[in-house]
Design a protein that fits this description.
By secondary structure, the protein is mainly α. It has helices at about 1-45, 45-60, 65-80, 85-95, 105-115, 120-135, 140-150, 160-170, 175-190, 190-205, 210-225. Among the domains are: about 30-100, Serine Threonine Protein Phosphatase 5, Tetratricopeptide repeat, CATH 1.25.40; about 135-225. It contains 11 helices and no strands. InterPro entries: TPR-like_helical_dom_sf (IPR011990).
Length: about 230
């Protein structure tokens, strides 16, 4: 009798363990789906909705530190897209806190925090250091491209230099945001055919995107003037 009771207890314990494992797998799947949805919203320019999803990732009890840091960075980028720069800097610093000082991710996130507080030269130095550590790192290439496009002050504009980083960012992760940065660079360099080629494709994928329509109009006007 005691043996049977012991075996039953062990069997029930195993069932509970299996239930916990299944529940964990289901929760992880839901978290992954949430992360994918948030990233898609961010890339589509729906920053408010993306931020709300990424906040849920940060609050998830099963999210790893790496997943939380990733979400915090995208919240920072979302607020940047919304021109809410102090909040963008706040979340960049929160993301940086998850990484060892001096690491690639620490430098990139602290550079973003610097940018949001007007410390552009300090940010550029951190980003150049990070890009040298990981030449194919998306974040450093993307932010350096924007910096040298003049997004943080016309005095920092260097369009040929920006083009190196914008091209790299687009090659690493083709998407609406990296492609628009590349297009803006082509327009600044008066390379209207290159810009138009990208924008025609963007306009097919994002037919209701006002920014894409405005940029396409700029490219077409540039081509028209060049032909006259």
């Amino acid at each position: 009798m005691k043996v049977r009771m012991l075996m039953l207890a062990l069997f029930l314990t195993a069932l509970v363990g299996c239930g916990d494992a299944a529940r964990t797998l289901a929760e992880q799947a839901k978290l992954q789906a949430l992360r994918v949805e948030a990233a898609q919203l961010h890339d589509a320019g729906q920053s408010r909705q993306a931020i709300a999803k990424f906040e849920k990732v940060v609050d998830s009890p099963i999210a790893t530190d790496a997943e939380k840091a990733h979400a915090l960075r995208f919240i920072s980028l979302g607020y940047y897209e919304l021109n809410e720069f102090p909040r963008s800097g706040e979340y960049a610093a929160k993301a940086a806190a998850y990484y060892p000082q001096g690491s690639y991710d620490y430098l990139v996130n602290m550079a973003d925090a610097d940018l949001m507080q007007g410390r552009v030269a300090e940010a550029a130095a951190k980003l150049e250091q990070a890009q040298a550590m990981e030449p194919r790192g998306l974040a450093a290439n993307n932010v350096l491209g924007l910096l040298y496009l003049g997004d943080n002050g016309e005095q920092y504009s260097d369009y040929p230099k920006a083009l190196v980083y914008n091209r790299a960012a687009f090659e690493i992760e083709p998407g609406r945001i990296t492609e628009i940065a590349l297009v803006r660079n082509y327009l600044a360099l008066h390379e209207y055919e290159q810009a138009q080629s990208h924008l025609l494709d963007l306009s097919r994928r994002y037919a209701d995107d006002i920014l894409v329509r405005d940029l396409l109009e700029q490219a077409e006007n540039g081509l028209k003037q060049a032909r006259e």
